[in-house]
C-alpha cells in the first residue's frame, strides 16, 4: 500500500458569491489547488467531487462532468453525496484509490451554492438530509434536529446555553485572521445568548451561516511526489467512516454520535495512533452542540465532559487541544458539499505552517478532520501527519 | 399499463396505513427478538429478522426531547413557532408536533398520547402529540 500526500490545496473565500455559478467557484478552488501542488492538470486521473443540494439550488444534477470541464481536467469524475459529509467521503475514496495503486493523482473536493435560495428554501433543502417520512413531515428542520440533540444532551449530562456560547465565541475568534472565512468578526458570549431563537435551545449564533464556496485538494502517491520533486510534507495516514440510523428517534442515544466514534476508531487504527496523539482538530461544528458531540465521539473527552471544554479554555487557540482554528463551520461558513474538503485544506495549511493560525500550533505533527452528514447518520474522519 | 400493476405489495403495512391508524389503533412492528420499528420495513434494523408482527402502540409515551422551532421550511412557515418532540413509546420512539401545550410548559418526561392531524402542513398527515 502506497502512502498518500496532500500535494496542494485550494479554496474560494467562503461567503456570498452572488451571481456566480457553482462551476465557476469549483474551478477557482481546483485551479488554486493545482497551482499550490505544482501538478499539471493533465496528470489528474480522476475527479472525486462532493455536492449535496445542487439539484435543488441550481437545478443541476450530474455535476461531476461539468466540474471536470470547468477545472480544465482531462479525466472522468464522480460525484459523492453524503449530505454535509459529501466532500469528506469524496476525499476518503480518493485516498483509497491512491493507496490501492489505481491512481497516482486524484483531485478531490466539493462545492455548494446556497445563498441564491431564500432561508426557507435552504431550510427545506437541508432538511432533506433527515428522514423524510418520520422527521421532515413532522416539521423537523436541520437546526431543529440539532436542538433536539442539545436538549437530550442537557437532560442527560447537564450543561447549558452559556457553555455552547463559548464554542461559538471561540470559533469566531479563530476566524478573525482567516482570509477565507465568511465571518471575520468577534462574537461575545453575551451576543450569542442574546441572539434570536432559531430552534430552542439554539439561537442564531449557535448555528453556522448559509454559505457559497468550494474546496479542492490534490492527493498524490508518494512515488509521484518523489518523481516530480513535489514539496508535499503532509500525508493522509488514516481514514475512517461510520454510519448510523437516519432518524434521531431510531438512535439508541440522542446525546451521542456513534457514527463519528466508529469513523475515528477506524482512522486511528489506520494511522496507528490514538486520540491522545492528536495535536489539533477541525471538527464539524454546524451547530455549537455538534462540536461538543464531536470532541466526545473522537475520544478527546468522555461523554458529558466536552460541554465545558471551550469555556475552560482547553479547545481555544492557546488550549491543550485547539479545535477549529480555521473558525470552523460556525464562523468560516458551511457550503455543505465543500466542507469536508475545506477541513482538509485548512488542516494541511495548519500543519505546513502557512495558515494564519499556524503559530498557535507550531510543533503540531498530527491533525484530525471530522466531517458529519445530517445529524451524524454518516461521518468521515481523516488523520493528517507531517511526514518529513 | 403502469409499471407497478400486478406487482405484489410488501408483506408489511405501508407508512400511510401506519399514520392513518394513529388516532384509533396505532401500532408498531416487532421482530421475534422483541425489537421495535416502524413501517415500511421488511427487516428488523437491529437484528435482521424478517418475521415482523404488528403490535399495539402503548396508549401514552413520555417526551424524550423537544424544541420550539422558529425558522421553518415553506411547508411549516405558517406554523411557527411550533414545538417538535421525540416521544418514547416503549419499544419505539415517534417524532411529531406537540399540540395544546406551550413551549415553556413542556419538560422532558411529560406524558403524551399520539394522534394524527389529517392534511397537515403540505397537505400530508401530521403526527401530533397531545397531553395525556
Automatic annotation (TrEMBL), chain A:
Coiled coil: none annotated. It comes from the Archaea. One of its GO terms (biological process) is isoprenoid biosynthetic process. SUPFAM superfamilies: Thiolase-like (SSF53901). One of its GO terms (molecular function) is acyltransferase activity, transferring groups other than amino-acyl groups. Residues 240-385 form the Thiolase C-terminal domain. Keywords: Isoprene biosynthesis. It holds the Pfam family Thiolase_C_1. InterPro entries: Thiolase (IPR002155), Thiolase-like (IPR016039), Thiolase_C_2 (IPR055140), Thiolase_N (IPR020616). Residues 6-223 form the Thiolase N-terminal domain. This is Thiolase domain-containing protein.
UniProtKB/TrEMBL annotation, chain B:
Pfam families: OB_ChsH2_C (PF01796). Signal peptide: none annotated. Residues 56-116 form the ChsH2 C-terminal OB-fold domain. This is OB-fold domain-containing protein. The lineage of its organism: Archaea, Methanobacteriati, Methanobacteriota, Stenosarchaea group, Halobacteria.
